[in-house]
Amino acid sequence: MLAEDSCASGTLRICDGCRAFLLEATLLQSPMEMAELLAAQLRKPLSAAGIRQLLHRAREKFADSLLQQVAQSLDEPTADRIEEELCELTLLEYCRPALQRQQPS
């Protein structure tokens, strides 16, 4: 699903190049270090702020995707039922911002 979103936005090539890197990103100590390594791999300049933004957007998309998948797995995907399911899966705190984004203002 994330690949479909990325393909539609034209960032699939970058995502493919970053997938392994992002999976290992937690092993690195700083966004600056991550920026340097990824910039070398992609042969394009990246800043620590850019890396932080990339990770923030990736986490948001991942939480949105989790929320959508949970909703699709339920017979009656009400807001309360989705929240209960996320709690049972111990994903509620991670997905709470995604839940809030989907609620009407």
Please characterize this protein's 3D structure:
The protein is mainly alpha-helical. It has 6 helices and no strands. The longest helix is centred in the middle third of the chain and has 26 residues, at 48-73. The radius of gyration is 16 Å and the shape is elongated. Residues 1-15 have low confidence and may be disordered.
Coarse morphology: elongated
Task: Please give the alpha-carbon distance between the first and last residues.
Answer: 26 Å
Beta-strand portion reads under 5%
Average pLDDT rating? 77
Secondary-structure content class: mainly alpha
- Helix content range of the residues, please? over 70%
Rg:
16 Å
* Number of E strands: 0
Helix run count: 6
Low-pLDDT sequence parts: 1-15
Largest sheet: none
Strand/helix succession: HHHHHH
Using brief descriptors, characterize the structure shown.
6 helices, 105 residues, mainly alpha, disordered N terminus, elongated
Quick structural gist:
The chain is 75% helix and 0% strand. The chain has 105 residues and is mostly helical. The N terminus is likely disordered.
Topology:
Elements: H1 2-9, H2 12-23, H3 31-42, H4 48-73, H5 79-88, H6 92-102
Helix pairs in contact: 3-4, 4-6, 5-6
